[in-house]
Design goal:
about 280 residues; alpha/beta; Rossmann fold; Alpha-Beta Plaits; 2 domains; two-stranded antiparallel sheet; 11 helices
């Protein structure tokens, strides 16, 4: 069973919930799909045993051959190639590595090279958490490339927790698309409600079962809870606005580690989800 943990925006406690679920399960697979700013490792403290580089193919053009590269520019839907005054202007940050230039370009005048865009780290966290994370190279725009490689390691044989990137862009969709269930972590404020509604709509379009955890319960107002009750959106749990939890988070400590009784509550969430997806 694959459970993704997402949020409509950053700072809602998404990673805190994902890590707490993994800590409560103790034996599971955990993947940090927030490859632009991965931080779950600071909580799970894995021993990294393997590092895999992630590269994409990008073209380079042998302009000294005098060949006509105009078809490459015409073919590229991302405008990574321009052909101006018989010269190629290449924008590598726009290139998606599709191989089209090699396909339609003049023979023997277009080559490809590997360009490093990130890496996948694999390790173990005690007692039995298989930990994987993607790490995008600063300045690279190839987030999906790193996520796609991370996706290859998702296990179908065990419980899987995926920590998604915040928001509802294509990077979040890539992270949740394989999940059986998605937990949306929100906060009880008008901003939290606005982003929650957008996230629920995305998951509805993806036909992924979902429910809500309200974090920092006690601040803001009741707008999120009222919305969920009115629209038949299940609230799995409400985590209080607790200074002890906030301090633990800043020290890289999960909720069950400071409040052992919460382990049962997070395991109860897993039980609810298992019954829902059957």
């Amino acid at each position: 069973m694959i459970i993704s943990v997402a949020s409509g925006k950053g700072g809602t406690g998404k990673t805190s919930v994902a890590v707490s679920l993994a800590r409560s399960l103790e034996y599971c697979q955990f993947l940090d799909f927030d490859v632009e700013a991965p931080n779950a490792r600071f909580f799970l403290k894995p021993e990294i045993k393997n590092e895999e580089k992630v590269s994409i193919k990008q073209p380079y053009f042998l302009q000294e051959t005098g060949a006509d590269f105009s078809r490459c520019a015409e073919f590229c839907h991302y405008n990574a190639v321009a052909y101006v005054k018989n010269k190629v202007v290449f924008f590598p940050e726009l290139c998606h590595g599709c191989g089209g230039c090699l396909l339609v370009g003049p023979p023997e005048s277009v080559r490809e090279k590997d360009v490093l865009v990130g890496k996948v780290l694999k390790g173990k966290s005690e007692p039995g958490i298989d930990f994987l994370m993607g790490d995008l190279i600063p300045g690279s725009l190839r987030t999906i490339s790193v996520q796609s490689r991370l996706e290859d390691y998702i296990s179908k044989r065990e419980k899987v927790i995926i920590d998604c990137p915040p928001g509802t862009s294509c990077t979040m969709v890539t992270a949740v698309k394989n999940s059986d269930f998605c937990i949306l972590v929100t906060e009880p404020t008008p901003f939290g409600l606005n982003d929650l509604e957008i996230s629920l709509e995305v998951l509805k379009n993806l036909s992924i079962h979902s429910a809500v955890i309200i974090n920092r319960d006690g601040v803001g107002d009741s707008c999120v809870e009222d919305y969920c009750n009115k629209n038949n959106v299940k609230i799995l749990e409400k985590i209080p606005d607790d200074i002890k939890i906030a301090k633990a988070y800043s020290n890289g400590t999960s909720i069950p580690e400071i409040y052992p009784e919460w382990k049962k509550r997070f395991l109860a969430i897993i039980d609810i989800i298992e019954k829902d997806v059957k």
